[in-house]
Specification:
Distance between the termini: 122 Å
Number of domains: 4
CATH class of the largest domain: Alpha Beta
Radius of gyration: 47 Å
Number of helices: 21
Number of strands: 27
Strand content: 25-35%
Helix content: 25-40%
Shape: flat
CATH architecture of the largest domain: 4-Layer Sandwich
CATH topology of the largest domain: Phosphatase 2c, domain 1
C-alpha cells in the first residue's frame, strides 16, 4: 500500500511553489509599473486638457465647467479625441516652435496628413506638459523619451547641463542604466564627446553611426552601431546645456520635420535647465564687480542685452574697474553703461573681440590670448593696439580683462619669450650690496622655485660638478679680480638630482674710477647641444667602423669573384665548339655582384654552358654565386637534362642557402648530334647569329631561382648549323635607367649583327658598344659552331 507520507510521484517538486511565487511577484511588479506609466501619461494628458480649457475660458469669457463642455462638444463635432483637440487649441494659441514642428508635418503629409499632424502635436504638447509639471530634470528626460522620442524610434535621451568652464553634468537621463548614468555624471572640460561638440559648435550635430567617430558618450559601446544627435539647449544667446538623443541602430539623414521636432524638444530642455539651475540668492554682477575692482588690469563686466524676441543682440558694459584704461583714450564714464558694439564697433568682425565674448557667454569655455589686436574708432579713424585678453563667464555675466602692451612691455615680453626658447637666463649681481637679481628663466634652469633666493657667483662652485671646479675658479678670477669679460662651461647639479650642461657668460660693470659696481651675465642650458655632439661623435665612430667593415667585405668579395672568374679568358675548344668568355666587373667596389659564367666538358662528353645573376651586391651575392655555380657543376655530372638541373638548383637556392634569388640559363650541347638543349630561370634567352642575322631563341617559361620551393622548368632544343654563333649574357650588358629592357635588347641585336673577324673581337665589340649605365657587373659567353 502507498504510504500517505511519501510523495506520490504525481505531485510537483518542492521548488515549484517558490518558482510560481517569483513569477507572480514579477508579473505584479510589471503590472504596477505599467499602471504608474499609464497614470503619468494620463496626468500629462489632463494637464494639456486643463491648459486648453484655460485658453477657452480666456477667449470665450466662460467659466471652467462651460469650457469643459465646449471642449467635449467641439471634439465630438470634429471627430477628434479631447486630447487631440486640446493640442490643436494650444498650438493655435502658442504659435511657438512646437507649433511649427507640427505644422511642417501637415504640409509634408499626404492622405492622412491631418492625423499625422495631430499625432505629432499631441506628442509634443504632452511631452511639454509632463516637462513643465516635472519636479526635476530627470523626470523631464523621462517625459521627453516616453511621449516624443520613442515614436521617432529613439531608445534613450540625456540632458546635459553646461558649466561655466564648459564642463558637462548629466542633469537627467532616460533609457540608460543607473550605473551608466552614475559613471557619466560629470564630464570635465576638454573631453571630446558628442555633447561637447554640439556645445562648442552651437548647432545640432547628427551622427548616422557614432561608432565610426570614436567619440565616447553615455550608454555607447564602441562596437555598437547606433545613431545620435546632440543639440545645444539655450535661450538668449547662452547655451545652458545639451540634449542628446540615442537610437539603437544607425540613423540615416532625417527630414526637416524631424529636425524641427528635436529642436523644439531642445528648447523645452533649455527652459527646464534655466529654471532649475539658477542660484536662489543670485544677484548678477555683485560679486563680479568686487572681483573686477580688485584687478590691476582693465576689466569690464558685461551683461547680455536681449532684443524683443529674447535673442542676444549685444552686451551692455555694466561696470568698468578703477584701473580701466580705454585704448581709444576715452574716460570711464563714456564707456560704462553703453553697449559693447556701440563703444567698440570694430570688434564685430569675424574672429574679433565680440565673437569671442559671444562664444564664451554661450559655451562657458574661457578664452585667453597673449596677443590680440583690438581696434576702436577715434574721429572715424581706426586705432589698433595689441593686448593680452582674458574672457570668462561668471554666472549670467561675462568678465572681459585686457592689458595693452606698450613698446616697453612688448620688448620685455619678446625678451622673455626669447630667453625661454633659447633656454637662457639673465642675472645681475651688485658688487657693493651683494644683492642678486635673476630673470624668471634662471630659476627654471637651476630647478628652483621663484621663492628661493638667487645663488651668488662666489657660491656657484658648490652647485657644480667637482671636476669643473678649476674651470669655474679661472672664470671667477678673470671676472672679479682681473675685471674682464669671461665665459666657461660647467655641469650644474640641481636639487632635483638632474645635471645640466651650462654655459655662463658675464662682464663687469665699472665706474669711471675702475671700481667694480656689478656683474651682469647670462646662463644658457647647452645640454641638448652637448648630447648632440656626443651622439654625433659616437655616430662618426660607428660610421667609420661600418665603412671599414664594408670596405673589407667588398675587398673579400672582389677577390673571391676575381679568383673564380677572371676578367678575360682565352678561347678554348671543346669538340667542334670554340668558346670565348668575357667578364666585366662593376666599376665601384661596393657594387660587387653575383654574376657568373661556366663552360665545362662533362663526363658524358656533353658541354655544359651556363650564365647566372644572383640578386644583390656585396659578399652575400658573391658567396651565393659560388654556391650556385659549384652546385650546378656537381649536379650536371648526374647526366640530367637542363630543366631537371634548374629544378634541383632551385631547391638549393630556396632551402640550402639564406633564400637567395637568382636568374640563370643552363645549356647542354651534344657534339654528336649538334643539338643544344637549354632551359632558363627568369633569365634573358641566348642570341643566335646565323648568316650575319641575330635573333633570340624562342622564349620558354621558367621562374627565377629561389622564389618557390617547387618549380617546373620547360626545356627547349635547338640544332646548330656550321658557322652559327651563340651569345649568352647577363643583364648588366644592356640595363639602363632611362630605357626599357625591350629597347635595350633591340639595340643589342643591332650591335650583335655587326660582323667581327674573330669570336673574341665580336665579344670585345659588344662590351665596347654596350649602352648600359647601371655600373653592374657583366658576364658574356660566345660559342661558335664549326
Amino acid at each position: 500500500m502507498h504510504d500517505p507520507h511519501e510523495p506520490s510521484g504525481n505531485e510537483p517538486p518542492a521548488d515549484v511553489p517558490a518558482t510560481m511565487g517569483l513569477g507572480r511577484l514579477a508579473a505584479t511588479v510589471e503590472r504596477l509599473r505599467r499602471e504608474v506609466r499609464e497614470a503619468h501619461a494620463a496626468a500629462d494628458g489632463r494637464a494639456l486638457i486643463e491648459l486648453a480649457k484655460g485658453i477657452l475660458v480666456e477667449r470665450l469669457g466662460c467659466n471652467p465647467a462651460e469650457a469643459a463642455r465646449q471642449l467635449a462638444g467641439l471634439a465630438e463635432k470634429a471627430g477628434l479625441s479631447p486630447l487631440e483637440l486640446a493640442a490643436d487649441i494650444v498650438n493655435q494659441a502658442a504659435r511657438d516652435r512646437m507649433t511649427q514642428a507640427a505644422g511642417e508635418f501637415l504640409s509634408a503629409a499626404t492622405g492622412d496628413g491631418d492625423a499625422e499632424k495631430l499625432s505629432v502635436a499631441v506628442r509634443l504638447r504632452t511631452a511639454e506638459s509632463g516637462a513643465l509639471a516635472a519636479a526635476d530634470t530627470q523626470a523631464v528626460a523621462e517625459s521627453l523619451l516616453e511621449h516624443a522620442l520613442v515614436p521617432l524610434g529613439a531608445h534613450a535621451v540625456a540632458v546635459w547641463a553646461a558649466g561655466m568652464d564648459a564642463s558637462l553634468t548629466l542633469a537627467g537621463s532616460a533609457g540608460f542604466g543607473e550605473e551608466e548614468a552614475r559613471r557619466w555624471r560629470y564630464v570635465p572640460p576638454g573631453v571630446a564627446t558628442p555633447a561637447r561638440q554640439a556645445l562648442l559648435e552651437r548647432r545640432a550635430v547628427w551622427w548616422t553611426d557614432l561608432s565610426r567617430t570614436g567619440l565616447p558618450s553615455v550608454g555607447h559601446r564602441r562596437d555598437a552601431a547606433e545613431g545620435r544627435v546632440a543639440l545645444p539647449a539655450g535661450t538668449g544667446g547662452r547655451v545652458l546645456g545639451v540634449l542628446e538623443i540615442a537610437w539603437p541602430h544607425p540613423v540615416p539623414p532625417q527630414p526637416p520635420q524631424v529636425e524641427r521636432q528635436v529642436e523644439a524638444l531642445a528648447e523645452l530642455a533649455a527652459h527646464t535647465l534655466e529654471t532649475g539651475s539658477r542660484p536662489v540668492a543670485y544677484e548678477p554682477g555683485s560679486e563680479l564687480v568686487d572681483l573686477a575692482d580688485g584687478l590691476h588690469d582693465s576689466a569690464l563686466v558685461l551683461r547680455p542685452h536681449l532684443d524683443a524676441d529674447g535673442r542676444l543682440a549685444d552686451f551692455r558694459i555694466h561696470h568698468v574697474n578703477g584701473e580701466f584704461v580705454d585704448f581709444a583714450g576715452r574716460p570711464r564714464g563714456m564707456v560704462m553703461g553703453t553697449l559693447l558694439l556701440e563703444s567698440y564697433p570694430m570688434s564685430a568682425g569675424e574672429g574679433g573681440l565680440y565673437e569671442k565674448v559671444e562664444r564664451v557667454y554661450a559655451t562657458g569655455e574661457p578664452f585667453r590670448a597673449e596677443r590680440m589686436t583690438l581696434t576702436a574708432l577715434v574721429d572715424e579713424v581706426p586705432l589698433s593696439v595689441v593686448a593680452s585678453v582674458s574672457i570668462s563667464r561668471v554666472g549670467e555675466d561675462v568678465l572681459l580683462v585686457w592689458r595693452v602692451m606698450d613698446e616697453a612691455a612688448r620688448l620685455a615680453n619678446l625678451l622673455q619669450h626669447a630667453q625661454r626658447l633659447g633656454r637662457v637666463g639673465a642675472f645681475e649681481e651688485n658688487a657693493v650690496t651683494g644683492g642678486v637679481v635673476w630673470s624668471e628663466q634662471m630659476y627654471t634652469l637651476h630647478g628652483l622655485p621663484a621663492t628661493e633666493p638667487p645663488i651668488p657667483l662666489q657660491r656657484l662652485p658648490r652647485h657644480a660638478h667637482p671636476d669643473d671646479g678649476v674651470a669655474l675658479g679661472r672664470f671667477l678670477r678673470t671676472l672679479l679680480h682681473h675685471r674682464r669679460p669671461a665665459s666657461t662651461a660647467f655641469r650644474l647639479q640641481r636639487p632635483d638630482g638632474v645635471a645640466r650642461h651650462i654655459r655662463v657668460v658675464a662682464e663687469p660693470v665699472l665706474d669711471s674710477d675702475g671700481t667694480l659696481l656689478a656683474v651682469r651675465g647670462a646662463f644658457q642650458d647647452v645640454s641638448a647641444q652637448h648630447w648632440t655632439e656626443v651622439a654625433l661623435a659616437a655616430t662618426r665612430d660607428q660610421l667609420a667602423h661600418s665603412e671599414q667593415q664594408a670596405s673589407e667585405r667588398n675587398r673579400l668579395a672582389l677577390q673571391l669573384q676575381n679568383a673564380i672568374m677572371p676578367p678575360t679568358r682565352g678561347p678554348f675548344e671543346a669538340f667542334n665548339l670554340k668558346i670565348a668568355v668575357r667578364y666585366r666587373p662593376a666599376e665601384e667596389e661596393h657594387s660587387v655582384g653575383g654574376d657568373w659564367y661556366d663552360a665545362l666538358v662533362l663526363p658524358s662528353k656533353q658541354v655544359l654552358l651556363s650564365v647566372g645573376d644572383v640578386a644583390g651586391h656585396g659578399i652575400e651575392a658573391a658567396t651565393g654565386m659560388v654556391v650556385l655555380r659549384n652546385a650546378l657543376r656537381g649536379l650536371a655530372t648526374t647526366g640530367a637534362g637542363p630543366a631537371q638541373l634548374l629544378t634541383w638548383l632551385n631547391l638549393v637556392a630556396h632551402q640550402l642557402t639564406e633564400q637567395i634569388t637568382a636568374t640563370a640559363v643552363c645549356a647542354l650541347f651534344d657534339p654528336e648530334t649538334g643539338v643544344m638543349r637549354w632551359a632558363r630561370a627568369g633569365h634573358l634567352p641566348p642570341i643566335q647569329i646565323r648568316s650575319g642575322t641575330p635573333t633570340e631563341l624562342p622564349m620558354i617559361s621558367g621562374m627565377m631561382l629561389g622564389v618557390l620551393a617547387e618549380v617546373e622548368y620547360e626545356e627547349g632544343a635547338h640544332r646548330l648549323e656550321q658557322g652559327d654563333v651563340l651569345l649568352m649574357y647577363t643583364d648588366g650588358l644592356i640595363e639602363r635607367r632611362d630605357r626599357s629592357l625591350q629597347h635595350s635588347q633591340q639595340h643589342l641585336l643591332r650591335v650583335a649583327g655587326e660582323p667581327g673577324p674573330t669570336l673574341e673581337e665580336r665579344l670585345d665589340h659588344l662590351l665596347t658598344h654596350s649602352r648600359s649605365d647601371t655600373d653592374d657587373d657583366t658576364c658574356l659567353i660566345g660559342i661558335e659552331y664549326r
